[in-house]
Amino acid sequence: LRQSDYAPYFYDNGPSSTNGNMALFSISEDTPVGKAPIYILNGTDPEEDPVRYGLTFEKGSTEYFRVDPNSGNVTLIQELDREKQDEISVHVSITDGRNKVVETVRVFVTDTNDEPPEFQNLPFIIDIPEDTAPGSSIYRVQAVDKDMGSGGSVSYYLQTSPFTKFTIDGHSGILRVKLGETLDFETTPTHFVTVVAKDGGGKYKGKHQVLTSTATVTINVIDSQDIKFDYGYCFCLHYVDLYEIKASEVGPNNELQDYDVTTVTVRVVDLNNHPPTFYGENGPQNKFEVTMYEHPPAGEILRGFKITVNDSDQGANAKFKLRLVGPNRVLRVVPQTVLNEAQVTIIVEDTSGIDYEKGPTLSFKLLAVEIDTPERFSATADIVINLLDTNDNIPKFTSEYYIARVPENSPGGSSVSSVTANDPDSGSWGEVKYTIYGSGSDLFSINASSGLITTQPWTSLDAEVRSKYNFYVKAEDSEGKYSLAEVFVTVTDMNDHAPEFDEVLVEKTMIIGTPVKIEAVDEDAESPNNVIEYSIMTADPDNAFDINADTGEIKLKPYIKSMEIVQNITKQKDCKWSVVVQARDRGSPSFSTTAVINIDITEATPLKGPMAAFLMKSRDNPLKALGMVTFIISVLVGVTVLISTAMYMRNSKSNRIMPARRIIKRRPRDQQPWTFKMPVIKFTNPGEKFLITDPESSPQQKIGSPRLKPPPPIAPCLPPPPPSNARPNERPRAVPTISGALASKGSKKAKSSRRKEGNISSALVSELKMKLEQKIHENNQGYY
Questions:
Q1: Cα(765)–Cα(771) distance, rounded to whole angstroms?
Q2: Helix (H, G, I), strand (E, B) or coil at 238
Q3: CA separation for the pair 654, 701 (Å, rounded)
Q4: For 210-234, what is each residue's pLDDT tens digit?
Q5: pLDDT given for residue 611 in this prediction
Q6: What is the DSSP track for 424-490?
Q7: According to the UniProt entry, which residue ranges have a biased composition of type Pro residues (predicted)?
């Protein structure tokens, strides 16, 4: 299979993270330019190759950021101004040197309180008649703050002056004649009023600040006829008194002549006869609607709404509260308490509640309810927000991992599993494309639209070759946002292999009372397809063997306890029987195979003591038995050499030999010293595993025959005796020594892919032990 090379990819950690692919990352406009990183581009390569990062902008646009290609650290290189550009489009890239991935992301510039309010329609010059009633509205000043949130809200007040005849509504900017004050053209024809516009304050470079602006309003008082009579109405309790004052005499120049002057005071008491009313740009309005993108930042003013509320009554009758009814804590309204008139500001409080996927339309009720009046007049306006979708979601799999099972030897193109990922965004942003990658994915493919995973057309899965696969699936939208899930595939085993013996004809040697074992191997991967049951098909002689169905151990029937019984059954000296054994697996369908086992029946030589127990335990491991025998012989030789050396050193020091006992050495005079050599085990065929050969004899001569005896040992030569202190009549003393050498003739080469087979005959090992003991005994017969 060819080696796949997959493209690197960014981590998408969401807009609140400071590392990833920079998608929907937000940065404050007062962030200082410098070397400190504002973000870290972070991604990886599936093959774990080193990656490099890049960052570019559209041609002709301002480049605000720079990235270190190795570390991914992004720094700010140009000052930001949200009021000029609140969104920056950036192309971020990641490459492993062969594949390059480029993603276009949007970076949002968040607001700080860096803009003071700006007065509109300057200069403010107004003309009013001198008889304008106190409390009357004469002008409305307006200032706009480009900041968002509390920093974009504006309130008004007049600079303190003890002689001012005017007042201003702090929310609406409406300038009125102060209650209790009158204007007089003859006294003061022009008034100059300084209006201060103040924002709601906010943070700038880590500190809270409030910004203000001032403007001067020039008020020209217009002269009017001072002498006139009006009709006044006084509403007292439940009756009305009408006072009418007429001029008694009017002269030719509209000057009173021959008249009496009477002062009449008329007090007009307000009647609460006006409910609060909402106004739009074109007059009274009870429904306000705006279209905007989802997820505006918290604190943003919804400037699409142009709402003014007014109560034409005076005093306490004109005081009311504003309240917004709808999804809890999504929006809030400012101000909450109004006297006469105010501009209504709606501010975002919970950006997660303004979500296109939760609903393309948000509806609220704006209520204005009088506070301290018995009538409790109120007004209601509908607030409707139509949302536009953004690609603010990533495709999400229904599960973090999928587990599938597929039968082995399924044809290419077979269905394995189906994965599903959902993207709640609308349009192309909500369309999901599936891909597959990973070390185990080469044998599988996935439908890019449906997520159906199948095997490749040329693939044939084999549980005996590989039964477990895992790889990743990727769900990606049109802008490259993605998520991953892991797929685990298990290739289920089918019974497509029959049990196999190493050989169809097996030679075994059985000691009466001891079983021999055969074994077959089934290459299927799972149980019960690779579980084997053994049975005897036929045997010669019949009804002579039993077999363990699970282990394959063959043993004689319980009544066969000696060689005499065996010979009575066969009527021959040749005790070689045969049995046909079947090995059958437990799969469905079941497969079987047979092997012929020729069994040479023998009887164990009685042995006693620990050596016998050891040889019985080691009958299935000839190398272990041979190693132990070799060790024993080496110890005996070593002990003999040590004794000889010690005696020699003792005699050398005393310059004489002091015999503790008489030693008579019997040997032919012309016999040469002999060297003991370890008999060699010859592994030529199963029937001759433990035949012992003499390396000094002819190749055809077998030591297994008791007719041949090894030559008697010859004592080794003694070192020269010391020249002095020897007694003249004393015979020299011979020191018994034994020397030996162990030589290995060879070993049988183990088979490469099967277990070692072979039960070792305890009878032959016993014979080997007897031969070794005989040699040692004959060695020692020369000394007494």
A1: 10
A2: coil
A3: 50
A4: 999 999 999 999 988 655 444 444 4
A5: 65
A6: ---GGGG--EEEEESTT-TTEEE-TTT-EEEE-TT----TTT--EEEEEEEEE-TTS-EEEEEEEEE
A7: 708-725
pLDDT score recorded for residue 727:
45
User: Which 3 state secondary structure label does DSSP give 733?
Assistant: coil
Tell me if residue 777 falls in helix, strand or coil.
helix
Query: Which residue do the tokens 């968002």 mark?
Result: 148
199, 201, 168, 166: which is closest to 180 by C-alpha?
A: 166
Domains in the chain (CATH in brackets) are 9-110 (2.60.40.60), 118-222 (2.60.40.60), 277-388 (2.60.40.60), 396-492 (2.60.40.60), 500-605 (2.60.40.60)
Which pair of structure tokens corresponds to residue 376? 């409790």
Residue 742: pLDDT band by 50, 70, 90 thresholds? very low
CA nearest 484: which of 10, 5, 4?
10
**Is there a contact between 308 and 274 (Cβ–Cβ < 8 Å)?**
no
Strands (DSSP E) contained in 11-134 are: 19-20, 25-28, 39-41, 43-44, 52-56, 65-67, 73-76, 87-95, 100-110, 118-119, 124-129
**What's the CA gap between 568 and 561, in Å, rounded?**
12
- pLDDT tens digit sequence for 399-427: 998 999 999 888 888 998 999 999 999 88
> How far is it, in rounded angstroms, from Cα 434 to Cα 236?
83
Tokens 């018994």 appear where? 736
Q: Which two tokens stand for residue 725?
A: 């202190």
Ranking 90-99, 512-521, 603-612 by mean pLDDT, the lowest is 603-612
DSSP-derived pairing of the beta strands 100-110 and 19-20: unpaired
pLDDT digit string, tens, across residues 659-716:
444 444 555 555 455 444 444 444 444 444 434 444 344 444 433 334 444 555 444 4
What is the C-alpha separation between 287 and 285, in angstroms, rounded?
6
pLDDT score of 748: 37
pLDDT grade, residue 149 (50/70/90)? confident
Measured distance CA(677)–CA(696) in Å, rounded: 9
pLDDT of residue 256: 52
Q: What is the dihedral of CA 332, 144, 320, 326, to 10 degrees?
A: -20
305 φ/ψ sector (left φ>0, alpha ψ -120 to 50, else beta): beta
pLDDT at 224: 81
pLDDT surpassing 90 at residue 432: yes
Distance CA 53, CA 68 (A): 7
Distance, CA of 628 to CA of 616 (rounded, Å): 13
pTM of the model: 0.41
One-letter amino acid of 526: E
Q: In the prediction, which pLDDT does 157 show?
A: 93
pLDDT of residue 612: 61
203-212 contact pairs (CB < 8 A, 24+): 203/112, 203/113, 204/30, 204/112, 204/113, 204/114, 205/30, 205/112, 209/113, 210/113, 211/113, 211/115, 211/116, 211/117, 211/145, 211/151, 212/116, 212/117
Work out the average pLDDT over 360-371.
92
Whether the bond into 589 is cis, omega within 30 of 0: yes
C-alpha 720/C-alpha 354 separation (Å) is: 115
Cis peptide before 296 (omega within 30 of 0): no
Distance from C-alpha of 682 to C-alpha of 703, rounded to nearest angstrom: 12
φ and ψ of 563, to 5 deg? -70, -30
Other CB atoms within 10 Å distance of the CB of residue 652: 13
308 phi and psi angles, rounded to 5 deg = -125, 140
Q: What letter represents residue 562's amino acid?
A: S
- Mean pLDDT to the nearest integer, 747-770: 47
Token representation of residue 401: 């991992």
Please count the residues of the chain: 784
Lowest mean pLDDT among 255-264, 561-570, 655-664: 655-664
Confidence band for 587, pLDDT divided at 50, 70 and 90: confident
10 Å Cβ neighbour count for 725?
Answer: 9
- The one-letter amino acid code at 664 reads I
CA atoms within 13 A on the CB side of 245: 15
